[in-house]
Amino acid sequence: MTAVSTEPERQPSSRRRSGWIARLIGGAIAVAAIGVASSGSISSAALGSDIRNSMTIIAPAAAGGGWDGVAREMQQGMKANGIVNNVQVVNMPGAGGTIALGNLSVLSGQPNNILVGGTGLLAATIQFDSAATLDDVTPLATIVEEYDVIVVPADSPYETLDDLVEAWRDDPKALPWSGGGSFDQLVVTDLALAAGVHPIDVTYIPSDGGGEAIQAMLNGTVSAAAGGYPDNIDQIESGRLRALALVAPERVDGIDIPTAAEQGYDISLTNWRSLSAPAGLSGEDREALVELVLETLDTPEWADAMTRYHWTEKVLTGDELDAFLVEEHERIAQLYEEMDQ
């Protein structure tokens, strides 16, 4: 897949090189970040003997993004209902979330820390060949999933997904795409495979967030985009963007957009969000953390967040979660291989 960027330093010449860079950055920052946080965040929370007394939720991105939203809504649910006495959120951006993952991986046996992650974090460990992976932490649960939507400008000549795909097949490089992150690029790759377009022929212009991707469409830089439904809903409802397909396993109540699958394109990669704890926990600690998470998901505050963010519930724990993560790793790794062939 051809990725065009205005910031070439973010586009390593190969995954081997990007993996080396990620290890270098991760190793250097992991120690520094933990040292900085020790005065009042990660290490202080780890001193608590009871997870109901103190907890740090780590968002592996800057404030304002999807992972940060999950962290702060979890914090609100815990605080408002007395589930945990002292809950703080620490933002630790960098390398698609793998910097934060590296930090969590060195906190072995300290159950007072939870990392928000998901599809994007799993993808980043593969894309950057990161030193730390999800095998180095304790998965607790997946909690929600968010669906991408395929959109074009309102004045686009493409009225349907078939229209778009037909033009794409005819001249893939002449129909540039964008998206708000690595997950969106995976969705475009998955659609390319389903549509019979070779991923290496796709022109994909990465954007720094959904808002930038939308602007790239509206100013004519790209012809189509994949992006999170919550990021695009306002532009769709205002009539500035036309939604051609929802990338979801089936129709979603309250979203009047046909799925890609029902239009003949079998793609259903979802942007799920997960929670993990450090490795080295006892079985009792893991069970207690899972119970705490499930209790938080049952609060009115979390229910309100589900509505506001247009999230769909996806709660997996235990063996079911472990099997799901293996399947998703294989699926995403295959998509990255397709991009490089």
From TrEMBL:
Bilayer-crossing regions: 20-42
Keyword annotations of the record: Membrane, Transmembrane, Transmembrane helix
Entry annotated with the keyword Transmembrane: yes
Family matches, as Pfam families: TctC
Entries under CDD domains matching the protein: PBP2_Bug_TTT (cd07012)
PANTHER family associated with the record: TRICARBOXYLATE-BINDING PROTEIN, UPF0065 PROTEIN YFLP
Family from the record: Belongs to the UPF0065 (bug) family.
Protein name: Tripartite tricarboxylate transporter substrate binding protein
Organism per entry: Leucobacter muris
